[in-house]
Amino acid sequence: MSDEQQSIEVTLEQVSDYEFRVRFDDTAIPDLVTDETPPLGHDAGPNPSRMLAVAVANCLSASLLFALRKYKNEPSQLGAKARATLARNEHGRWRVVRIAVELSLSNGEADLSHLDRALAQFEDFCIVTESVRQGVPVDVSVRDSSGTLLHAAKS
Q: pTM value?
């Protein structure tokens, strides 16, 4: 990857009310429909707050997978659960005030080599999480197949 700046472009078109069709410009990625929750929208697709939680959880999952493979691991199925906490600010406006992500490995701790190194660095690989953390705390935990907590980081 180049050290130069890169850009990502998306185009949104209003379908109706708060429903939008998202086009990922210059890609073959299928369009995505977004919408607000009732009473404003009709839940025809994820709303922006859900998309933010998805972006953080997906980026962390991919970063953990990358870090594990960097040490020649072949991890089994990886799962993630994200919770975005919303609260009203001093002006009464809803804001995402925290995101918590729990990553679950299908492997046991003993099945993964250099796990300590992978866990020490994977969050730093995550473009989205490290960008979001500039304004929203993001808590991250990793558990193995037996539910053992392997990693916990609070912003």
A: 0.92
> Which conformational region is residue 26 in: left (phi greater than 0), alpha (psi within -120 to 50 degrees), or beta?
left
Give me the pLDDT at residue 2, please: 62
Q: Which amino acid would we find at residue 93?
A: R
The residue written with tokens 């912003």 in the block is 155
| Continuous segment of H or E residues that includes residue 126 | none
Measured CA to CA, the distance from residue 56 to residue 36 in angstroms comes to 19
Given a contact cutoff of 8 angstroms between Cβ atoms, the answer to whether 91 and 110 are in contact is no
> pLDDT digit string (tens) for 111-138?
999 999 999 999 999 999 999 999 999 9
Phi, psi values for residue 150, rounded to 5°: -100, -25
- 109 phi, psi to nearest 5 deg: -55, -40
Question: Helix H segments across 18-137?
Answer: 48-70, 115-125, 127-132
- H-helix or E-strand containing 81? strand 78-88
Q: What pairs with residue 72 in β-bridges?
A: none
C-alpha–C-alpha distance, residues 143 and 82, integer Å = 14
Neighbour tally for 27: CB within 10 Å: 10
